[in-house]
Amino acid sequence: MPLYHFLLALSVVFVWGTNFVVIRWGLDGLPPFLFAALRFALSALPWLLFVPPPAVRWWRLAAFGVLLGVGQFGLMFLAMRADISPGMASLVVQMQVFFTIALSIWWLRERVQPYQLAGLALALAGLGVIASHLDASVTLLGLGTVLAAAFCWACANLVAKSAGPVNMLHFMVWSSAFAVPPLVGLSLWLEGPQAMADALRHAGPGIWANVLWQAVGNTLFGYGAWNWLLARHPAATITPMALLVPVFGLSASALSLGEAMPAWKLLACALVLAGLALIVLWPRWRPTSPAAPGSGGT
Q1: Residue 40 pLDDT > 90, yes or no?
Q2: Total tally of structural domains belonging to the chain
Q3: SS3 241
Q4: N or C: which end of the chain has fewer CB within 10 A?
Q5: SS3 of 84, please?
Q6: What number is the average pLDDT over the span 22-28?
Q7: Structural domain boundaries, residue 37
Q8: With 0-12 CB in 10 A as exposed, 13-18 as middle and 19+ as buried, what is 71?
């Protein structure tokens, strides 16, 4: 992977990791499905007026928009409202890494290399350390809901990857439009028109800044760049980068909420970083086989 691709992926997971604290603040002012609907509405408008549709079939745009908007974020926002903490959500949703690689092996017939499996094992050990020490509140419903959100994210990854090297900013803008109607419908059904109206009426500048950040920073930049990378590299190379999300999530909680960073958290971060370093750097470390006699160019 070129260095600038690695740095782009790193910037995306930094945005995503720190965003769990921001989501928690947003849910204090907006019900979850309305929050998600506003996020994707601002990801689509007014940008639809300025960018042409990408050169993909409409069903791919619709499938990606619904999987990401309703499946990942609708479910995750719903769970984070009361059934799971931001730290635990940032951890559990990373099951999408393993779901994505498994789906890639089954659907796209991709091969996973031994060094990638070793890197995933190290990163998984780091996640295990985090999971064994987190004292965050979590219910069975919250855990199951976030696991379902992770599976929807993995499916969205595969839809985006199968679209090929299209303009991913255009892809994100147009696919976001398909997420809005079902999210609005779910908000009307589960949250009610009165709660929606009250939330919108009382939303202050901080809430709207939160929604705008969700749309521009996390959706258009984050998923646009992520899908651009997935279209150019095997899923087993890109998706493990998302294992850094809980590392950044814990760091953001420490800085913004005063959460302590004891030795076990530092160990978990070291394991995750070691796994990612193995996956990203092993192809550079591996010695190149010498060329066979007579195989050189003229």
Answers
A1: yes
A2: 1
A3: helix
A4: C
A5: strand
A6: 90
A7: 3-283
A8: buried
Task: Enter the tokens of residue 181.
Answer: 């109607």
Give the pLDDT score at 294. Answer: 40
Instruction: Check: CB of residue 100 under 8 Å from CB of residue 146.
Output: no
Whether 289 is covered by a domain: the verdict is: no
Within a domain: 88: yes
Higher pLDDT: 291 or 138? It is 138
Q: Which residues contact 262 (CB under 8 A, 6 or more apart)?
A: none
Residues of 137-146 as b/e, b for ≥16 C-beta within 10 angstroms?
ebeeebbebb
Q: Identify the burial level of 287 via C-beta atoms within 10 angstroms of its C-beta, where 0-12 means exposed, 13-18 middle and 19 or more buried.
A: exposed
Asked if residue 297 belongs to a domain, the reply is no
What is residue 135's predicted lDDT score, i.e. its pLDDT?
59
Going by C-alpha positions, the residue among 112, 133, 94, 85 that lies closest to residue 253 is: 85
CA-CA-CA-CA torsion sign (96, 220, 269, 240): positive
Is 138 strand, coil or helix?
strand
Asked whether the predicted pLDDT for residue 296 surpasses 60, the reply is no
Residue 145: per-residue pLDDT: 92
- Is the CB of residue 248 less than 8 Å from the CB of residue 14? yes
Query: Which residue carries 């690689």 as its tokens?
Result: 101
Confidence of residue 189 (pLDDT cuts 50, 70, 90): very high
- Give me the residues paired with residue 84 across strands: 138
Output the CA–CA distances (angstroms, integers) from residue 79 to 2, 88, 138, 271, in the order listed.
37, 11, 9, 28
